[in-house]
Design goal:
binds zinc ion
Length: 477
Amino acid sequence: MSQDNIVIVIDPGHGGLGGGSDDGASYNGVMERYINIATAKAMYEELSKYENVKVYMTRDNPDQAMTLKQRAQFASEVGADYLISIHYNASEEHMIYGSEVWIPSIGKYYAEGYGIGQAVLAEFDEMGLYLKGVKTRVGDGDDEYYGIIRESEKLNITGLIIEHCYIDNTRDYAYYCNQEAYERFGRADATGVAKALGLKSTQLGIDYSMVQAKIKAPVSRVYQDETPPEVVIKSCSTDGNGIVNICLYAIDGESGISHYAYSLDDGVHFSELLPWYDRDGDHEEQITVMNVSGNLAGVVVKAYNNYNLVSTSNRVLLNGINGVFVDTHVQETIESTLTETVPYTLESTMAVSETIASTSAMGTTSSSVAETVTERKEKNISQEASQSSSETTLQEEMMPIMEGEETFHSEVKETGSLADENLRYHNRKTGAVVAGALFVPVVLVIFFKSVLAASVKKWYHKIKETIMNNVERMKNG
Ligand SMILES: [Zn+2]
């Protein structure tokens, strides 16, 4: 064995029987305790085919319990460079699907974790999974939120959590339906790791030394996204024959848009969570809803970012006749929308509100232009903390602000109760993230009126330019 061997510890999450049992996510008879082992074993076998790498597993028996600290200690004892924790996901309302990887938030740990995370998700992408990103999460004391990452980092090991897919959502069913599916994931994990680390395998006839990930270590800690996305219905129409077309604008400059759901009855019922594909990068999607029947009420869309933070769009009224979009209460709609869009920004105010609303003629030419600029004030941290104390404590990989969709696991179990964990998390000064949220301009362009006076257009462009400059400044700052 040469000295430059990379040591990788594969850690199947959860496990144990009796008092110390931890099944992990469990749904319809599929249990993490078992399937994590299946995936980890396949990963172990595949990764062992590469040279200059030594692979271990923390455990290979689903009934064996281990604390997160013990797993990290085991990794340290074998001289691990990486500890890769194998998991599957589930959410409270069983609506979320897709894959994500949690990585350390600091320095070389971040860089190494990010390289592996991206490479693994690229494999999942090829398999057809929906990707929810490579992410960090910082908790109490400005330390890693997830126990296995935190314990690993203490021992100078880069820890990662791979959440392969959701075992409680049919969209991911093909990826968790049987033993072959679990093993396929394990091989994909190994391939991703081999690519990120530039490994070679004579046995497999593979040389990834040219594709090795090279990620620069960030200067400061990389925090999670704590602000919800922006979402606007730009236009909406119906042909009167059961088809509704919605032009949706959604953006999240930090973690990206993950899913959206629409409602045609004023938000009483929403569609399932739909994937957001913005391949051309214009932050817009044309949504066509087929076979719509009954009386249409207000159309509303919810958008989720990759941290499952959710925003609700403006409400648009449809009268159901010949593609006519009727919105006679533009100002009112926008104001109520903004309140909804930043539901947890307790002191959000509309500091600037410029609205240009033309007369709204009924009929096929009904249109208006409305533009609103808001500034967000800093979150009231103490109020947020008291709010969080009433949150459910059943779920462990809990997102701070979610609407009924919370992911549960036990990666943070080791340090105090979850209620504490969440409370402390909410109390954390959000630093750059909140700074970024200050003065975020929200642009709502509902409709262009073709007969707008040139001077009004000029005014509009000037405002837009100012906003874009602000956005650029934020990005650069
Ligand atoms: Zn898990």
